[in-house]
Amino acid sequence: MSDKSRIDEPTGTSTVGHEWDGIEELNTPLPRWWLWSFYACIAWAAVYVVLYPAWPMVNSATRGVLQWSSRDDLEREMASHGAKRAPITNAIAALPIAALPGKPELLEAAIQGGSAAFKVHCVQCHGAGGAGVVGLYPSLTDDDWLWGGDLAAIETTLTHGIRNPDHAETRMNVMPAFGRDAILDAASINDLVSHVRVISRQEKPSASSARGATLFEANCVACHGTNGEGIRELGGPRLTDAVWLYGGSREALAKTIHNPRNGVMPRWNDKLDAATIKMLSAYVHSLGGGEDAPAPVRAAAPEGEADNG
Amino acid sequence: MANPDALAGTEGPLYAPRKGVYPKKVDGNFRRLKWLIMGITLAIYYGTPWIRWDRGPYAPDQAVLIDLANRRFYMFQIEIWPHEFYYVAGLLIMAGIGLFLVTSAVGRAWCGYACPQTVWTDLFQHVDRLIDGDRNAQIRLANGPWTAEKIARRAAKYAIYLSIAFWTGGAWIMYFADAPTLTRDFWAGDAAFIAYGTVAALTATTFVLGGFMREQVCIYMCPWPRIQTAMMDEKSLLVTYKDWRGEPRGSLKKALAHPGSLGDCVDCNQCVAVCPTGIDIREGPQIGCITCALCIDACDTVMAQVGRPRGLIDYCALDDVAVEKAGGTAPPLLKTLMRPRLMVYLAIWSAIGVTMLFSLGERTRLDLAVQHERSPLYVQLSDGMIRNNYTLKLRNMEARPRKVAITVTGLPGAQLWTENGSRSTASQRVEMTISPDSVTRVRLFVAAPAQGPVRQDFTIATIGRDGDPRGDDDTIQFDRPEAQ
Q1: Contact assignment for B381 to A128 by CB distance below 8 Å
Q2: Is the pLDDT of residue A140 over 70?
Q3: In terms of pLDDT, which residue wins out, B237 or A299?
Q4: Per-residue model confidence as pLDDT tens digits over B105-136
Q5: C-alpha separations of A138 from A177, A284, B192 in Å
Q6: What is the C-alpha separation between B77 and B1, in angstroms, rounded?
Q7: Per the omega criterion (within 30 degrees of 0), is the bond before A138 cis?
Q8: Rounded Cα distance, B289 and B238, in Å
Q9: Cα distances (Å, whole numbers) of residue B290 to A187, A304, B32, B124, B126
Q10: How many other C-beta atoms lie within 10 A of the C-beta of residue B305?
Q11: Residue A143 to chain B, least CA–CA distance (Å)
């Protein structure tokens, strides 16, 4: 092709010799500085290959003279981040959890940290955002708490778990399997269901529910309270509200009385440090159903000012 | 580097070394215009960050500040937030259309007068003349041996180059932080690494591009000359050598010896000598010409000396060239400028500007964005009501704390409270004070009776409670469980 090259008259530059429908290209020489820059780039590439990981080998690349690696960078960053967070983490660990609301910046940090830890340890059962799974795992966002919804109660539940047989301090109660163990017959269970449906205002009183009331008094009040209002200290669920872990329909209630689940939550004191458990408690408490502590811990912050951004 | 001729085969030379450009000192109208524009542009560049502008206690008092860390852009009384970046986009579009307008009207005036590369090259060329003397002295020095004098002059010149370059890099960072504070920190060694890095990089580029690359940037690196050639038309002004008047060229002596046989050009080469890009304008319009018009000044001076009319080299559109060649008189400049194409550009440019100014005046400085939390969509409360959770972002774009209220409409029986309150204090509205010039995130809990549609649209609004009731609202859904 290049034998067709000729000198272009107006510019005095030779053409490259290609021709497309009469359009030709000038072979304008590169400026010298451009060529220098090009050689400098090649030289830099050679230096880079020596300094940095560059040459692919079977298992990894060559390390380079500087021994740089992005994994080391990450490790350093994580370590420096941990060091930066340490004062806050230590302060949270040292503070009794009931005093956390008195320190808004620590509370905020705890909720943030708890949100991250929740995604690792808790979502498997309680779902993203603590939504729970109907019929399996409790929602942590509602205002109904089996074992108490203030910060300290949540911390205790997280620390010691629920129904961990190997742990003395665990939250423990067992609902008898009234049907499976033949404590009550099917008709009695049906009457009990009627009564529970009445006290939760899902049904009108009937002859069946009146019989159920007597059965309730004999079998259930020790844990669920005289009027089914629940007993927090024993973890006895409230039966008069609209929140049902295993369902509030006739079928679901009959199933529960026949063969209760007695769900288990692992204790976390053998897996997580105290600060992480406190942070998780603060996060769960913040999901919308958190209760104030029974003792007046927040006396310093009167209710009226509590909603000031 | 090898000798280019040795490498030159049938393919031509491998590279073209730069030809030195030593523009001669010149005076005239266009030179004075260039002085003026250089003074104004450099003053704007170096001075702007030091202008103060009082915005009260919650905002910086620097008139023009690009606060990257806090994501704010301040320009006198205008404050732009990141979500209002379309104003910056609008400014860029205006700058683009402004360049179309200028280019189709007066050709490469941007290149000739206002481009930073031109302004700094011009500045550095003045430094050359100050240290080395005018064109001939510069050529002599460049071609001469490395004597002590040459080394001293070069050292002095590069020292001045470097200080100008450093000052240029130093001024740049002042736009991104409070200028007096940053200056103090910079010299105390307390400024951020990025500040030193930016100054170093811009010092290097200014030193190299202004001191050495100069016209090479315009000819080889910059895309703008090539775009401009496509945007000019036969009515755009060009620096034109009027060959029909100047040719055949010849010295004054020859012209006197043979009256009538020669044109007006006395071939004094002054137009070439003053050219900052080293071209010969008499070869016609070319990519190397940045239309700085210094050759017009040079030629006018010579024409005055030899007693011939000025304007042998002059701004002239291609249409005017045809008219003048035919012996006519070119239409007045104003008439050339009042053509539809320019009017359309001007109209678009002004429309964008006016629209932006109008919307700047109309924008509310209290903004609400609502997000419905989706996990869970709804929460069954023990008393039978249903709660939905929302994340509110309240943007207070004023430099003062605001008292605001959050209300809902379209959701009967609703109770609202935030993470700082509790349901026992819930009511139809929440009041709070939000920080100045910041985004406040609020979790809003809304409880409503269970009876109602599965998905219901309602409105969350925020209004000012401190005299200025203007605010913002957002329509969002309230979700309920499906009836069993």
Answers
A1: no
A2: yes
A3: B237
A4: 999 999 999 999 999 999 999 999 999 999 99
A5: 20, 12, 50
A6: 56
A7: no
A8: 9
A9: 102, 71, 17, 17, 18
A10: 11
A11: 6
Show the domains of chain B with their CATH numbers. 17-229 (no CATH), 235-330 (no CATH), 366-479 (2.60.40.10)
Do the Cβ atoms of B430 and A307 come closer than 8 Å?
yes
Q: What radius of gyration, in Å, describes the C-alpha atoms of chain A? A: 35
**ipTM above threshold 0.85:** no
Q: Which of residues 426-465 of B touch A (CB under 8 A)?
A: 430-435, 440, 442-443, 445, 450
pLDDT, residue B313, reads 95
Confidence of residue B12 (pLDDT cuts 50, 70, 90): low
Closest chain B residue to A17 measured between Cα atoms?
Answer: B11
The domain defined by A186-258 carries CATH number 1.10.760.10: yes
Tokens representing residue A5 in the block: 């090259």
**Which residues of chain B lie closer than 8 angstroms to A288, CB-CB?**
379, 387, 389, 443, 445
* Residue of B278, B311, B270 whose CA lies nearest to B29: B311
User: What are the φ/ψ torsions at residue B388 (nearest 5 degrees)?
Assistant: -115, 150
Q: How far is A210 from chain B (nearest CA, A)?
A: 24
Q: A141, A238, A303: best mutation site toward chain B, by most B Cβ within 10 Å?
A: A141
Residue-level pLDDT at B484: 55
- pLDDT tier at B9 (50, 70, 90 boundaries)? very low
Q: What is the DSSP letter of B220?
A: I
Q: Which of B12, B423, B442 sits opposite A309 (nearest CB)?
A: B442
Rounded to whole angstroms, how far apart are CA atoms B71 and B426?
35
Return residue ranges of chain A for CATH 1.10.760.10. Answer: 93-171+264-291, 186-258
Are the CB atoms for B1 and A32 separated by under 8 Å?
yes
Q: What is the secondary structure of B443-457 as a DSSP string?
A: EEEEEE-S-S-SEEE
Partners of residue A205 on adjacent β-strands:
none
Q: Which of B382, B389, B418 is nearest residue A307 as measured by Cβ atoms? A: B418
DSSP code per residue over B154-210: HHHHHHHHHHHHHHHHHHHHGGGS-HHHHHHHHHHT-S-HHHHHHHHHHHHHHHHII
CATH of the domain spanning A93-171+264-291: 1.10.760.10
Distance of residue A37 Cα from the nearest chain B Cα, in angstroms:
13
Instruction: Give the DSSP letter string of B257-293.
Output: HSTTSS-S-----HHHHH-TT---GGG-S-TT-----
Spatial separation of the C-alpha atoms in residues A135 and A278, rounded to whole Å: 27
Interacting residues of B165 by C-beta distance below 8 A, sequence separation 6+: B202, B203, B204, B206, B207, B210, B211
Asked whether the beta carbons of A286 and A140 are under 8 A apart, the reply is no
Helix-helix angle B29-47:B148-173, to 10 degrees: 50
Residue B333, pLDDT score: 86
Whole-number mean pLDDT of chain A? Answer: 89
Distance from CA of A124 to the nearest CA of B (A): 14
For B62, other C-beta atoms within 10 Å of its C-beta total: 24
C-alpha separations of B458 from B224, B418, B449 in Å: 53, 18, 14
Average pLDDT for residues A171-183, to the nearest whole number? 94
Maximum average pLDDT range among A287-291, A299-303, B43-47? B43-47
Q: What is the pLDDT of residue A296?
A: 46
pLDDT at B2 over 60: no
Task: Report CA dihedral (B45, B46, B47, B49) to the nearest 10 degrees.
Answer: 80
Is A32's CB within 8 Å of B417's CB? Answer: no
